[in-house]
Design a protein that fits this description.
The chain is of the alpha/beta class. It is 50% helix and 14% strand. The protein folds into 2 domains: 7-189, Rossmann fold (3-Layer(aba) Sandwich), CATH 3.40.50; 194-298, Orthogonal Bundle (6-phosphogluconate dehydrogenase C-terminal fold), CATH 1.10.3660.10. β9, α5 and β10 (185-188) form a beta-alpha-beta unit. The protein is globular, with a radius of gyration of 21 Å.
Length: 299
């Protein structure tokens, strides 16, 4: 078997065959993220076998578009997988974890792609050693979800956070090779640190954009929205996100999200008074926006 050049991950140099670190990959939840993982994995490792687990109509689309090799609605399809990726809503992923012990009798690395990590890390830590769980979160997405929006380059240059809580270094190494093969950049942090930072980076922007679009639409109506410029469109790009995913996120990160919302409300109330706070906030926002854009250029 031929060997690739070394791939660096988490400060370690690991060599893997060009067949990839995982020969059979089962993805439970074949929406935007799950299907994009499959497309990216197929492009990088054409010989890997891809298994999709989801509703019948989703599986039909996955098979029709050749995004998966095998598909169905039964977790038993994960039986011989080397890697199981949970890509359903957060609380669904948590409930699935307890079923994997019966559905996967052999050895497999288990990960997820959910936007919160503390609860699932707690449940994943109870799996037997043959099913090492390493929580994960790719910081990539799109304005709309679903298999139809999936694409193979979704993770290119994006951060992918891993939140291991057990001594599963071999699993972390293999998973890191897989993630880097999809084009993403691995970052490692604790589940609590993850949930705290994404409350500001992801959850607060989503909830703010959704609330803003709701309020503007309700107050101005169809005729008013016809007058809107690009500013409103750009600011509310996230307002089309599906609510089921965000119900789970809000329920599993309520404390950190609550703190972020309270701080935003407090700042808006101070800006409402005008004066120095208004000007200082605009100036600070402009500086941080430059930092954000510079980071995108480097990535």
């Amino acid at each position: 078997m031929q060997r690739d050049s070394a791939v660096s991950t988490a400060g370690r140099s690991v060599r893997e065959s060009d067949d990839g670190p995982f020969g059979r990959i089962a993805i439970v939840g074949f929406g935007l993220i799950g299907a994009s993982i499959a497309l990216a994995a197929r492009r990088r490792w054409p010989s890997a076998e891809l298994v999709a687990v989801d509703r019948p109509e989703v599986i039909q689309s996955a098979m029709r578009t050749h995004a998966a090799d095998i598909g169905g609605g039964d977790l038993a399809l994960c039986e011989n997988a080397d890697l199981v990726i949970l890509a359903a809503p957060v609380q669904t992923n948590i409930s699935i974890l307890s079923e994997l012990v019966r559905s996967v009798p052999g050895n497999a690395v288990v990960t997820d792609v959910g936007s919160t990590k503390r609860q699932i890390a707690s449940v994943g830590g109870q799996l037997p050693p043959r099913l090492p769980f390493v929580g994960g979160h790719p910081l990539a997405g799109a304005a709309t979800g679903g298999l139809e929006a999936a694409r193979s380059d979704l993770f290119a240059g994006r951060a992918w956070i891993l939140t291991p809580v057990e001594n599963h270094q071999r699993a972390v190494d293999k998973l890191s090779i897989f993630i880097e093969g999809l084009g993403a950049k691995v970052r490692v942090m604790t589940p609590d640190a993850h949930d705290s930072v994404v409350a500001y980076l992801s959850h607060l922007p989503q909830l703010t954009a959704t609330a803003l679009m709701h309020l503007v639409g309700e107050r101005t109506g169809i005729d008013g929205l016809a007058l809107a410029g690009r500013g409103l469109q750009d600011t509310t790009r996230l307002a089309s996100s599906p609510p089921d995913i965000w119900r789970d996120i809000s329920a599993t990160n309520r404390d950190h999200i609550g703190t972020a919302i309270d701080e935003l409300v407090d700042l808006l109330l101070r800006m409402k008074q005008g004066g120095d706070t208004l000007g200082e906030t605009f100036e600070s926002a402009a500086r941080w926006k430059q930092v954000l854009e510079a980071g995108k250029v480097k990535a």
